[in-house]
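We emphasize that the prediction below concerns an isolated chain of 92 residues; any contacts that depend on oligomerization or on bound cofactors are therefore not represented. The input was used exactly as deposited, without trimming of termini.
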Amino acid sequence: MTVTMTSPSRARDKAHLSKVRGQPCLICADPRTSAHHLMFTDHPAMSLKVSDYNTVPLCHNHHMELHRHGNEEQWWALQGVDPMEFVEEATK
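Result of the prediction step, given as a token string:
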């Protein structure tokens, strides 16, 4: 997985988040999703979410599973999915 540090301004875009939520889960294709902010894509900052442009659609079960796992990059590798592919396509 190639990680690109982007969006140091931590942009907020409700329309983009709505677009992401309109896509199926990257893991199971469930159409009921929320936008998960990829924490490893921006420089760490206390209590700040990453940019809304670094989000991917996940169903509730996979979203919670990812948070319980704790190591986000490892979780994605175990799923065999590169979330950055979605991010790059969604921001074109």
